[in-house]
């Protein structure tokens, strides 16, 4: 079987049309169409139905898609493994993380890692929710900083390296009273208009679940994919933003309280994930160790008002 045909099949599925797949693979559109026809002939299966000049995946094509992706993943893994064996201390490391993680941790951490691994080129991507899982499986990322609650129960696709947990914070106008002391019980947030990350963010799912358990219906003023937009609105007095403690808040004048559920801090579990079918170079494993140590030093990035922060930033 010609691997070009397998790549053509997967590219057409992922891009939606032959023309976009041809651009992605840098081949002529007629040549790509011929590769699909040749693959169907070799397999003696129809992979696509031609409906109004569009290609629609057949049931047989749907069932073969995962296997074809596994084939390409194995080939890519072999190529990467050979490259890593040739260059043990140098290479490219593709890492995905949420915008708040990039802002709060990677903006300073990457300098520390680069000082120890100057020949490793980090390629950082912004990912939200479960989109990191698909990118790991397609080989677009080597590592992803992910929220463990997003993993489906019993999944065997990923290895994980645990990181320090994050807390949930309620932040509002500097003169807006929030709870008693450093904490606010989640049920008391029902009294405020809320500024929330939208539902593509994994931390939002945890907050929604906690609201259901607490028996409250939150009054949502806005949902946003831009964490700092929520902080700006909170500073201006439009409501209370619910954000993870990894998001820096020092640029704003805010009142901050830790969100609790039944008097216990509401927390989320973080981990570095990677596709277990792919071998990681040593510098990627060291990346996990360095990141864990750094996060233990600086976490939480944002804390309840009144807490003193004594730590060094790289």
Account of the protein in words:
- This protein has 314 residues and is an alpha/beta fold.
- It has 3 domains: 3-71, Winged helix-like DNA-binding domain superfamily/Winged helix DNA-binding domain (Arc Repressor Mutant, subunit A, Orthogonal Bundle); 85-164 and 269-298, Periplasmic binding protein-like II (D-Maltodextrin-Binding Protein, domain 2), CATH 3.40.190; 166-267, D-Maltodextrin-Binding Protein, domain 2 (3-Layer(aba) Sandwich).
- It contains 9 helices and 13 strands.
- The strands form 2 sheets. Strands 3, 4, 5, 6, 7, 8, 9, 10, 11, 12 and 13 form an 11-stranded mixed β-sheet that branches. The chain has a two-stranded antiparallel sheet with strand order 1-2.
- α1 (3-15) crosses α2 (18-25), α1 packs across α4 and α5 crosses α9.
- It is globular and about 70 Å long.
- The protein starts with a helix and ends in a 16-residue tail after the last helix.
């Amino acid at each position: 079987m010609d691997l070009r045909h397998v790549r053509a099949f997967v590219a057409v599925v992922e891009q939606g049309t032959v023309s976009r797949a041809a651009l992605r693979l840098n081949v002529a559109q007629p040549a790509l169409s011929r590769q699909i026809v040749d693959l169907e002939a070799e397999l003696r299966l129809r992979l696509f139905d031609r409906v109004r000049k569009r290609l629609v995946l057949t049931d047989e094509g749907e069932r073969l898609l995962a296997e074809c992706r596994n084939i390409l993943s194995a080939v890519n893994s072999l190529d990467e493994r050979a490259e890593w064996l040739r260059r043990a201390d140098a290479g490219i490391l593709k890492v995905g993380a949420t915008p708040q993680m990039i802002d709060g941790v990677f903006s300073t951490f990457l300098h520390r890692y680069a000082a120890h691994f100057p020949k490793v080129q980090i390629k950082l991507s912004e990912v939200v929710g479960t989109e990191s899982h698909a990118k790991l499986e397609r080989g677009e990322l080597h590592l992803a900083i992910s929220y463990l609650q997003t993993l489906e129960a019993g999944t065997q696709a990923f290895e994980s390296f645990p990181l320090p947990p994050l807390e949930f914070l309620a932040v509002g106008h500097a003169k807006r009273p929030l709870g008693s002391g450093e904490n606010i019980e989640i049920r008391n947030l029902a009294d405020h208009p809320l500024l929330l990350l939208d539902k593509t963010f994994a931390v939002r799912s945890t907050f929604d679940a906690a609201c259901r358990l607490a028996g409250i219906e939150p009054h949502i003023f806005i949902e946003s994919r831009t964490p700092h937009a929520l902080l700006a609105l909170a500073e201006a007095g439009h409501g209370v933003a619910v954000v993870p403690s990894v998001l820096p808040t020092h640029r704003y004048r805010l009142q901050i309280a830790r969100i609790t559920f039944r008097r216990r801090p509401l927390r989320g579990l973080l981990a570095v994930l990677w596709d277990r079918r792919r071998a990681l170079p040593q510098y990627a494993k060291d990346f996990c160790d360095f990141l864990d140590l750094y996060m233990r030093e600086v976490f939480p990035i944002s804390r309840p008002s009144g807490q003193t922060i004594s730590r060094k930033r790289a």
